[in-house]
């Protein structure tokens, strides 16, 4: 409570000094100079932006330099405002030796400078929400430091707290932990993205190993970032035993599926049974694997839909991997012709129908077999191979069938189909026996 009283005293003293200065003509002069500098800075910035084309000026420059120029252009009015305030304060100091008569101009210039520096430094953060949070916190600290209230504010925030499980939680601890977590987690994500891109360019690693290494690197960096923050703010890890016990209970009761999917995802990446680019059938879904996450695997179908299949399903259910050991896939369909047809000619036409489709492989060669003497047709089976199942199998099967249809029409070969006769007869309505009751007369 003593720290809160000291903080209140500092704020009260600053307010009394400000109220005292309100009666001084120098305060009005400083306010007028600040307003004038703001107006002139905005005007100069608009004039310069109207004459410059940044896109043409920075064409061919490195990306970081173009980003820096764009940030400077966006804050050009504030930069001119700072320069004008520096000149104004120099003039005030030359006119009067008392620093108090130019103090407000100096504070305004320092606050504006701190804001520009913070905006330029946080411009590398692509997340706009994180950028705003970090900029606001950093500028608040800079402002408190400039006006001399940083130490009293920190002492006041640290004087109030509660103890949970041996850990003393104060507003200052929460603020420091939040800021450090945002910065370290952003840095860990940026570094993991960079390392993930480098791993994906390694040609010696399979796609599943690349994904596994990327996930492990990201998990390790995030864990390391959290540990650094906790140790930096002075949190004893033994004090977190209560929270770790609660997390363990939560995992035991309500997070079994999440943990199961996470472990299943690691197993899939380690044994390489499923990897990005594989063509699979799981349940009723057929498609190719696009991404493998910690909790689910994305399966893209031919109709543009993406099914997010939990990783546990790949472990517990039957999965057909069409491209597990090889990208070559056999496509088969059956057809029948009339008994008047020559089976040797039919087989030749079926094989030639495959040759007219570019996606059909010639090695292994397509084959066509007579498999049965049906009730009304000679039944054949045509098999051929493709090497790009991700481009679809129904479409290539349809092209081969169209070629076969054209060949049958050209050679006069019929495809039998059942003929049914429908006979309709008229039945007479049955006549009921017995006498008909006479109609009742009205009264």
List keywords for this structure.
single chain, 443 residues, alpha+beta, SH3 type barrels, 4 domains, 5-stranded antiparallel beta sheet, 3-stranded antiparallel beta sheet, 15 helices, 57% helix, elongated
Beta-strand residue percentage: 5-15%
Major sheet summary line: 5 strands, antiparallel
State the separation between the terminal residues, measured CA to CA. Answer: 109 Å
Estimated structural class: alpha+beta
What is the overall silhouette? Answer: elongated
Q: C-alpha Rg, in Å?
A: 40 Å
Instruction: Tally the helices.
Output: 15
- Count of the domains: 4
Q: Quote the average pLDDT.
A: 78
**Would you list the SSEs in sequence order as H and E?**
HHHHHHHHEEHHHHEEEEHEEHEEH
Strand numbers in spatial order across the main sheet? 6-5-4-3-7
Uncertain regions spanning at least 5 consecutive residues: none
User: How many β strands by DSSP?
Assistant: 10
Share of helical residues:
55-70%
Quaternary arrangement of the chains shown?
A: single chain
Textual characterization of the structure:
- With 443 residues, the protein is an alpha+beta fold.
- The protein has four domains: 2-159, no CATH class; 177-254, no CATH class; 274-321, Roll (SH3 type barrels); 329-411, Alpha-Beta Plaits (2-Layer Sandwich).
- 57% of the residues lie in helices and 13% in strands.
- The chain has 15 helices and ten strands.
- It has helices spanning 2-22, 25-51, 54-57, 63-74, 76-95, 103-122, 128-146, 150-158, 171-200, 207-232, 241-253, 256-271, 311-316, 343-355, 394-411, and strands at residues 162-164, 167-169, 279-282, 285-292, 296-300, 306-310, 319-321, 329-337, 367-373, 378-386.
- The strands form three sheets. It has a five-stranded antiparallel beta sheet. A three-stranded antiparallel beta sheet has the order 8-10-9, covered by helices on one side. A two-stranded antiparallel sheet has the order 1-2.
- The longest helix is centred in the middle third of the chain and has 30 residues, at 171-200.
- The model has no long low-confidence stretch (mean pLDDT 78).
